[in-house]
Request: fold
Amino acid sequence: MVLAAGLGTRLRPITETMPKPLVPISGRPMIDHVLDLLVEAGIETAVVNVHHFADRMEAHLATRAAPAIRISDEREGLMNSGGGLAKGLRLLSDPLVMVMNADLFWVGEDPREPSNLSRLSAFFDAQAMDMAMLVVPLARTTGHNGRNDFSLLPDGRLVRYREDLGAGVVYAGAFVLRRALFDDAPEGAFNLNVIFDRVIDSGRLFGLVMSGEWITVGTPEAIAEAEATIARCAAVAGTETPAGT
Reply:
């Protein structure tokens, strides 16, 4: 599922005339960068929730050949991140679901290695985990607020960030979860942090450090920063010598 229904208030005035996921970054809407990552990882079906300029979102998503898109309609009222995910999960039957934010993506992965999302899928261990999350060190973020979200403990578990604990990391906007976590989710709108904290308390939230450069676009100024990072990574990729040559 791709969480894409937010108002994008910090990106105004741009989002006064278009939904945030359709704001172009390096010539392509943000959400296409995200959906391309899912396709690369073998995801065939994705739920996308819509609210702000919902008709434009649906029209754009209908132009994509892959993945197959199912719309979770929030026109009548925003459900916040947790409520939106809970509603969208009703359109999926799989016991495990991959979730991404429409405005968080990355570039510059090592082409010789499996993709970040493929690694995340392989990393998830249903015996030990309820949720596995991609994380990134602050040094490899663009457009972020400069604060760590979690501490990554030596055994791979994540807890809320504390300076005296493991290495500080940022939530990279992608995770795999057992959909059963939402069987008793609150009704109506609620923040996804409610679920994160529950899984932390159970000791079953684990983190995987992603490769490449992570990008978030929350303000108009962040667009140029994101495009500069994309261009830099593309230039590096173009000058690298293929393995074995």
Helices lie at 30-40, 54-61, 80-89, 116-123, 193-201, 220-239. DSSP finds six helices and 14 strands in the chain. Residues 241-245 have pLDDT under 50 and may be disordered. Residues 220-239 form the longest helix (20 residues).
